[in-house]
Amino acid sequence: MIRERVGKKTSILGVMYPRSSGLWFACGRTKSLEYGKRVHAHISKRKLDRDLILGNNLISMYVKCGSISRARQVFNTMLERDVVSWTAMIAGVAKQRDVKGAFEAFQQMQQEGLKPNVITFMSILNACACPAALEKGRHIHSLIVETGADSDVSVLNALISMYSRCNSIVDARQIFNGMCKRNVVSWNAMMAGYITQGNEVSARQVFDRMHQRDVFSWTTLISVYWKCGSKEDACQVFNQMPVRNVVSWTAMISGSAQQGYAEDALDLFQQMQQEGVKPNKVTFISVLNACASLSALEEGKKLHDLIVKAGLQPDVSVGNALISMYSKCGSLDEASKVFHRMAHRDVVSWNAMISGNAHHGHCHEALDLFEQMQLEGVRPDKVTFIAVLQACSHAGFIDLGRHYFCSMIQDYGIVQTGEHYGTMVDLVGRAGHLDEAEEILNKKPFQPGALELGALLSACRVHGAVEIAERAADSAFKLEPEKSGIYVMLANIYAAAGRWDGARNVRLLMEERGVKKEPGRSWIEVKNKVHSFVSEDQTHQQMEEIYAELARLTRQMKEAGYVPDTRFILHDVDPWQKEWVLCRHSERLAIAYGLISTPPGTPIRIFKNLRVCGDCHTATKFISKIVGREIVARDVSRFHHFKNGVCSCSDYW
User: 622 Cβ partners below 8 Å, 6+ apart?
Assistant: First the structure.
């Protein structure tokens, strides 16, 4: 229980803590929100929650745990507030990217006669670090000069960062050039500003001018190169580093995973371990994301074991990454175990679990989780509603989807984004309400993007709506003429309708514009190694055995009643040629390799970068029954669990 304060210490739960530090910061560091709430409750019982120093520490603890609403409750009940109280609240609101709220708090603090300190200025500058807040940032800059805070190098560094993020690199450079004294953060902030603007030459010039380059500087350059999509430059800097620590390794792993080089990320992680560098929380999260991208379940399980040994599983962000990894690797049961074992769950945890259930076709469970989330007091965000709408779409819950779409703004004040509109178009379009799908886009308050138009085209492909598809494709071509997906979908729609001239014209248009079709690629993990296949692949060392297995399966499938659906072939060629191509699609090659490389009866998990072909979907149902195995296939839209000749999607996909 709480005992009395002694000197500058307070006894909480039977332990003595300094009033100005101690437990609050421990709760904040580990994000132990539940424990922090218990401590707060004990403090309130002893009527100590209005004490200035204790109140400030409570605010800081709640801010670090991400609970701004509770921080604000403490703040509002304080009888006395100082600059530390206000700065803690401003910092918390700034972390939520609430520019207006942070600025209002900053102004109110001044109205109460309190002068901002260096930390206050740095906190409010962080809130202003976006193009829309540039003028507010300029106003703060003028106050900094008036108060003499521009003599502090940390404040000047924050100004450089703010102007860079506001796309005002000239102002950032002016501050940098005027600094009497610079530290390594100053150089890194200027370098990052240039690369964020795409000016890699100037960034490299800044780097070359640095008199002292520590590991942090090299790592910053690696990170910004990755953000600009420059893999070669990032690798070059990494290889030139005289010393590499966990942060630099993590920057390379994270950049590789985020930019689509997931296999490279796994290789880097192995190299890092071989060099004896101990991974940290961010490293694990990055590698888990790479495993999720590749559906590398076995690698993910090994990482989970390492995370447990490192004592990191209680961390919320690590738990969230584990849920996402297991879900995307096709193991929803393991994802659920992680979720239910978490002592604290935030909105990201709930979103990951709702989305996982939706993508696996467990739509009732996804919507039940959504209701439970609200009962536990977790407020949904825009990502939550994307997952909820996807659950409705996969299950064909049209009326419920309409309800949630309207509820977003009416009940929660969440403005719909293009992804929400795209999911609604998919929901009603897939159900055959193509006129309504087109109307949704026409009534949209902002111009439809390629995502929404692609959803409409996908629905047109299912229902053979050529005219609507042509209108949608024309609009999409104007927005993203270089993206191959729209061309391919339109060509598929023409081909399925037997309009070969139309399909041929689309291919000619692609050639004229230099648009290359993204090749279908499928992956499968066998014995901790990820194997990749493309259609009609000849590169795998066991290709002869794979094609022999495919031939055997095709014979058995036909005996069981399988008839190839050649509508999914874009070229007007002989039927036997169409059938030959279908049988060599990448997902079938991956499945065949899995069958010859894994023990009988074990599940097979594959991942494809495009939607599963309709004929391959039918074929996989036959294969699952013939071989007596569950086959889990993940495509860009959802998971398909094939078992005993039936798919979990009930052929509604």
Answer: 556, 557, 560, 561, 562, 645
**Which two three-digit tokens encode residue 298?**
């076995």
Structure tokens at 408: 């977003």
Q: Is the Cβ–Cβ distance between 441 and 428 less than 8 Å? A: no
Which range marks the domain in which residue 20 is found? 1-80
Burial of 55 (0-12, 13-18, 19+ CB in 10 A): buried
Question: Which burial class, exposed, middle or buried, applies to 111 when counting CB atoms under 10 A from its CB (0-12, 13-18, 19+)?
Answer: exposed
Distance CA 280, CA 525 (A): 25
Mean pLDDT of the chain: 85
Round to whole Å and give the CA distance between 565 and 68: 56
User: Does the residue 383 lie in any domain?
Assistant: no
pLDDT tier, 595 (very low <50, low <70, confident <90, very high otherwise): very high
pLDDT at 14 over 60: no
Question: What would the two tokens of residue 98 be?
Answer: 């609430």
Q: How far apart are CA 23 and CA 20, in angstroms?
A: 10
Please give the average per-residue pLDDT across 7-29, as a whole number. Answer: 44
pTM: 0.69
Higher pLDDT, 11 or 426: 426
Q: Where is the domain boundary, 481, 513, 545?
A: 513
Which residue type occupies 440?
I
